[in-house]
Amino acid sequence: MSSSIKQTVSEISIQLPWGEIRGRVWGPDDGYPVLCLHGWADNCGSFNTLIPLLPKECRYVAIDHAGHGLSSHRPPGVYYCFRLYVADILKVIDGLKWTKFTIIGHSMGGNIAGMFSALYPEMVDAIVLLDAAGFLQKDAAEISSVMRKGIHEMLQYEKKTEQKLRVYTYEKAMERLLAANPTMPEESVHILLERGLTAVEGGFVFSRDLRINLRNVPGTMEQSLEMQSRIQSSVLVIIADKGLPTFYDSKQQERISTLLQRYRDRNCGFSGIPLPFYKHRKHQAGTAQIPALCACKESLRQREKQHKTQSRAGIKDKKAS
Q1: Of the listed 46, 71, 107, 224, which one is catalytic?
Q2: Predicted pLDDT of residue 2
Q3: Exposure pattern of 222-232 as b/e (b: 16+ CB <10 Å)?
Q4: N or C, where is the chain less crowded by C-beta within 10 Å?
């Protein structure tokens, strides 16, 4: 890790009506703003090894989503859904006083980025999707079943008056995380557990809210395509061939392919880069040799140059007036 980046890493907390969103910050205060959104059940530590490889002139803010890492859990009776994640982002951006920025989103974070960019296109300069298509979708015929199961799961969860969390030793917590993610590098396990565990009497408990496991109601393909059409920014999509394509059945893979093709057809600056032999969380390994990293770095450098030019122009205008 370069010393210039390491020295500027700090913790951040954005206060919300029901708690706080926590995260980490890299880079200078006046750097081009980049928001980093992690995937489901991860935390912002998943960007610890990637950000030092990106242009150091940018201002990177990686947050823990609600119910993840060190951020607060949502109040009782509240679902974890994409609309609320988007609302969280809007509050975070307001707290940061950003007006326009780039989003790097991994997996679920990429789908949050897609929805945010569709709803607030004037605020997003560019999107980098890491193993994500920007939207989660289901066939219209499946929506009612998914919705019913989600409601049932929440009601069953709420009937348990006391949620007993299992206490682990650090080693057992590592084993559990590795069992769920057998290809994850050991370094990444330690990084995620840094924010993913809370110390209690007798050991540790996982800090994430168990309600994040309850079903999230997606949109239909028609809704996803309509939302996608509202995105105005350039889009860089990086797909691991042993990542996103291996998670779903052929029907879902076809829907993902349709979304990716729409980015190309709209000529919105789309760049689709496959990563042969790479898996879903490859960005956590911090491998400088990832071919797509060059494209990501170049995109951010271009944004940073534009940011500096606009900043200088603004200073000149103030002096002239």
Answers
A1: 107
A2: 43
A3: eebbebbeebe
A4: C
